[in-house]
Specification:
Blueprint lengths: L8 H13 L13 E7 L18 H9 L1 E3 L2 E2 L4 H10 L28 H7 L3 E7 L18 E5 L10 E6 L3 E6 L2 E2 L2 E2 L8 H15 L6 E6 L16 H4 L8 H26 L6 E7 L14 H4 L20 H4 L3 E4 L8 E3 L3 E2 L3 H8 L17 H6 L7 E7 L4 E6 L2 E5 L22 H6 L1 H7 L12 H11 L20 E5 L15 H15 L29
Parallel strand pairs: 1-10, 1-11, 2-13, 3-14, 4-5, 4-10
Antiparallel strand pairs: 2-12, 5-8, 6-7, 8-9, 11-12, 15-16, 16-17, 17-18
Amino acid sequence: MHRPFLSRVPALMALACLAQLFQLPLSFSQLSKPNIVFILADDLGWNDVSYHGSDEIPTPNIDALAYNGIILNNMYAQPVCTPSRAALMTGKYPIKLGMQGPPIYGAEPNGLPLSEKLLPEYLKDLGYTTRAVGKWHLGFYQLPYTPTRRGFDSHFGYYTGYVSYYDYMLQDVYQNIGEFNGFDLRRNDSFAWDVVGKYATDVFTDEAVRLIKEQPSNKPLFLYLAHVAVHTGNHGKNLEAPQSEIKKFSHIADPNRRTYAAMVSKMDESVGRVVQALSEKNMLYNTIIVFMSDNGSPTFDDSGRNFPAASGVSENWGSNYPFRGTKNTLWEGGTKVPALIWTSQFQQNPRVSQQLIHISDWLPTLYSAAGGHTGFLPKDLDGLDQWTSLTLNLPSQRKYVLLNIDEKKRYAAIRKDNWKLIVGSTANGSVDGFYGITKARIAYNVSAVIESRAGRVLSSLSDSLYLLKPNIRDILATRLEATVRCIPQQGPRARSPCSQGEACLFDMESDPCETINLAKKYLTVSSQLYEVLKYYRRQLVTQTNQPIDVNANPVRFNHTWSTWMY
């Protein structure tokens, strides 16, 4: 068995001190070059992982990582997918890139600005092999915008916002133009027709496992696994999962929610397979794993109805409960996401963290963990290096998180410490309520967590506390601590928007579900946060979204979504 990473820390820190003495760009983590596996779920709700207290959808593999690592209970992303991915890859708020608006559509000639250096490029500078699997959604209308031109050594996946889970088709319907329908799955620049008929979550996991197995032992790996799960599939095939998996959730009455649960379960299985592959390759002891969602779920109400028309997003039967709002809103339900970070050294001090973190922080944080000197990063990054804070359990480097400013829809939100200010609303306040209340209940199975693929593998590491000698009481106590408890409002007041310039101020520590507007009571706090919003508004780059280009129609490219401008 390999020595736990933490046991090498004193020697590494001594070398780091020498490096600092001689002003060398060296940190202790540089000496080990940890592998980095970043798993990004799509549209996964807060209430859709069982370590947050959900008694409806078991996620034993994800839970095993959570209980052995750090549960990030104060992790924010952007309200929709392209902006979140832009923040992740650049370390910047989307408002500085013109990416703060709606996601990039398939036939839209738009992309993440080529002037930006991306996370995989920074890691390549440190000697990493960089692999992308799954969703891109940062532009492809010209070749320079595609993943293998932006720092990834390879890409197996799709360029657009989502595809069906079996046929990998995307159907976009554009007003006054019509329907564009095409295939979107490729290995680098070649279409991957051979996997048609195979379930997407399994296909992407197979590729991730293959890449892990083939990774040279003398090079660190950065693997970005961006699942289509649990986003809806193509129009007319909204929710897809193997029937054998759906049958496991007979306790869920609603057929849509039942299929969604199966989709989550397959993604949880994927996490277990990736962890197992890392162990079999003898890489796990020196790997950082991040798991998170790109935004909240486009959820459902008490009747099972979803909100595609109101919120402008594809329907999904996920749950953000007990948080307010849906995907594409600035409420907690749209922007606070399930997230965790695991590495073997955290197993000696697993915990639930309330450290304030934003998705833009991952670039400097992972760069630092990989041995990079953050002083060499651009000064205009919004992301902050949280590695030392996470490793030593220190306060977050953050005081502020800008959740978004949309100058066209005229809404914005910002958080400072325990305060959150929202100005304006999405869809005239029609999705400001509390949705996704789950009714099915099954007993939480701690043994299933311990016996999961991830659980068994993690228990083999010498520094496991929870799973080497399973302590059910400790696991349940951690789960309870990670569960947000509040009583959402019901009735008309629950849907009251912060519209027409009205400000809504919430104390997130005492009121995590945003039920009591304190804007008038704490006018000084409201004014201060509003001034900060104005400061960021002056830095805003106008949204770069472009009109649909008919030349992108897949019918011109053998019914495939392809680069169409040269």
